[in-house]
Specification:
Mean pLDDT: 82
Largest sheet: 6 strands, mixed
Order of helices and strands: HHHEEHHHHEEEHEHEHHHHHHHHEHHH
Number of helices: 20
Low-confidence stretches: 1-11
Radius of gyration: 30 Å
Strand content: 15-25%
Structural class: alpha/beta
Length: 419
């Protein structure tokens, strides 16, 4: 069922009736659209200021004109002007003050510069990769509103508190499968644009649902970086990962053994196949892929090795020796795949789940170009992930069969993790 917009919600709501004499005060005859807008803004200003005055009266314990209660030292202390952004444009209002500065309005909190959901529009545009300049141009064109770069930055910077909380949130004690993958982003550092890697971890929970466990921008290389990632997961509550699926990321194996020594590291089979096909021409790739099927569809390790040797001896293996060589280099991380029953193989066969996320993120990154800082990249990617994963909820396809196999193979590690 489609979610109602704020406009449709307002249309469904019964609005309070405005007294006829008040309308008569504003409407003296035919009015232009601009005059209606000015009257609307004037009324909104008066209404906001009256509401803020009532809030301060409640805070102090007495309304304007009433006697100050005995023992109450705090009192009204004038007003300060503040420009807030409304859906109709900027509006300058007078905010009442109290002497000891303890009054924090609910209607327009301290340090807030917006009165409506206008910031939601800014965040939505930012999450789609639009720059501050593009957002300003859009608001000016669509709403006739001039918004400063500082205001847009303040709206998007407020997201970082949510990002920090999300990155530090507690995790499950055990994940049957965690997929790790990377994408490249361009960062400007010291006036030079450089490539950096952003790593994502997609966890499959014991009930088959999925969750992005975190995102990390690589600041160190190899095992040191992965040690930081795995320790982060452990600090947040994860004590066990049954299977980690990756694309042979550098330094991962050593770090994984140090932090999660009982975890099985599995190379993504689909990545291996894709890397193999890079050696072949477009016309030959279908045939090469078919020739590799007996390897990864083999029932046992021995049968898979025999199939790989047969591939080496036959047409495509002789024509493209690097293909078999790439499989042999990754063989230690390929072997675990053949220990699992078909239901689990189907789950860990590929990192397509996380690659689908990365494909959507790459579109946004391409639109954005480069980022001025790691924080800016983290902020945008988190907002994009929030949009992408917003519709998640159902368990991974064919999870029930896999769940039963996990329970048999891993026993209490799966059924009663760290009991």
């Amino acid at each position: 069922m489609p979610r109602k917009t704020k406009t449709s919600q307002a249309a469904d709501r019964e609005l309070p009736a405005i007294p006829e004499d008040l309308i008569a005060h504003f409407v003296k005859g035919p009015m232009t659209a601009e005059a209606v807008q000015d009257a609307s803004m004037a009324f909104k200003k008066a209404l906001i200021e009256r509401a803020l005055g009532a809030e301060l009266g409640h805070h102090l314990g007495y309304q304007p004109g009433a006697q100050r209660p005995a023992g109450t030292a705090n009192q009204r202390n004038g007003k300060s002007a503040k420009t807030v952004l409304t859906e109709d444009g900027p509006l300058r209002v007078d905010i009442p003050r109290d002497r000891d500065g303890s009054f924090d309005p609910i209607l327009i909190p301290k340090h807030e510069r917006r009165f409506t959901g206008f910031d939601d529009k800014i965040i939505a545009m930012y999450a789609r990769g639009m720059t501050v300049r593009e957002i300003r141009a859009f608001l000016a064109e669509q709403y006739g509103t001039e918004v400063s770069p500082e205001f847009i930055s303040s709206v998007t910077d407020a997201v970082m508190d949510e990002v920090t909380a999300w990155q530090a949130r507690p995790l499950e004690a055990m994940y049957p499968v965690v997929f790790f993958d990377a994408l490249r982003v361009k960062m400007r550092e010291d006036g030079v644009v450089r490539n950096k890697a952003v790593y994502l971890a997609l966890g499959v929970l014991p009930d088959g649902t999925r969750d992005i466990l975190g995102l990390w921008i690589e600041t160190t290389e190899g095992a040191k970086f992965w040690m930081k990632v795995f320790n982060d997961l452990k600090t947040r509550g994860t004590q066990d990962i049954l299977i980690a699926v990756t694309d042979g990321l550098k330094g991962m194996e050593a770090a994984l053994n140090a932090v999660f020594p009982n975890t099985t590291l599995q190379t993504c089979i689909v990545h291996l196949i894709r890397n193999s096909l890079e050696y072949a021409s477009w016309k030959e790739r279908r045939a090469v892929a078919a020739a590799l099927k007996p390897v990864y569809r083999a029932p046992t390790v021995e049968a898979a090795l025999a199939a790989l040797e047969a591939f080496e001896r036959e047409e495509w293996g002789k024509k493209y020796p690097p293909i078999a060589a790439s499989w042999r280099r990754a063989w230690d991380q390929v072997i675990p795949f053949f220990m699992f029953p078909p239901a689990i193989r189907k789950i860990i066969y590929t990192t397509n789940a996380i690659e689908s996320i990365n494909a959507q993120l790459r579109k946004i990154i391409k639109t954005r170009g480069h980022f001025p800082s790691d924080e800016a990249a983290t902020k945008l990617l988190w907002l994009a992930l929030r949009n992408i994963t917003g519709s998640w909820g159902s368990s991974t396809h064919d999870w029930k069969a896999a769940m039963n196999q996990f329970a048999i193979l891993y026993e209490e590690r799966f059924t009663h993790p760290h009991r």
